[in-house]
């Protein structure tokens, strides 16, 4: 369960970061050559950049099932079955997401750069980087959250102290 939450946290962080980039890049609706998009696809496969999004459909199916089961517990079995059927029907739509992500990569890198990146991600160092990025990202987010909490507590204490000091001076 903890691993699943960590993966979802990493997926969410990645999705948010990509979302900010994606909105401006894809909004331009640039057109790219097939070879440029193939190079982008190669990088996303080699880097496993699409993996964080693998959990989207199963998570949506789980949330949908839970919503229908809560609304009508007597039809829980039916809700599970129908949700699974619909999830399977929607699975091919993943290609739409992938295509948009290939365009995102193509908008940020030239075809040659993408080919170089794909080559890099297939080296031992590239594989090591690819395999460690999710843990590094997850741990970085945790460290940042802890730092933010500590800093927030410190800020509140300092402001409270200063306000108390100023109130006693009046």
Characterise this structure.
With 170 residues, this protein is an all-alpha fold. The protein has one domain. Helices cover 84% and strands 0% of the residues. Helix 1 crosses helix 5 and helix 1 crosses helix 7. The model has no long low-confidence stretch (mean pLDDT 89). Keywords: Signal. It comes from Roseibium denhamense. This is DUF2059 domain-containing protein.
Helix-strand blueprint:
Layout lengths: L1 H26 L6 H14 L8 H16 L4 H15 L3 H15 L2 H11 L2 H46 L1
Helix pairs in contact: 1-5, 1-7, 2-5, 2-6, 3-4
Oligomeric nature of the chains: single chain
**Would you tell me the structural class of the helices and strands?**
mainly alpha
Strand content is: under 5%
What composes the largest sheet? none
Number of helical segments with 4 or more residues: 7
What's the gyration radius in Å?
22 Å
- Strands, total number: 0
Low-confidence stretches: none
Shape: flat
Output the helix-strand order. HHHHHHH
Helix content, binned percent: over 70%
| N- to C-terminal distance | 54 Å
Counted up, domains total 1
The overall average pLDDT, rounded, is 89
Keywords: Signal
Protein name: DUF2059 domain-containing protein
Signal peptide: 1-27
Pfam families: DUF2059
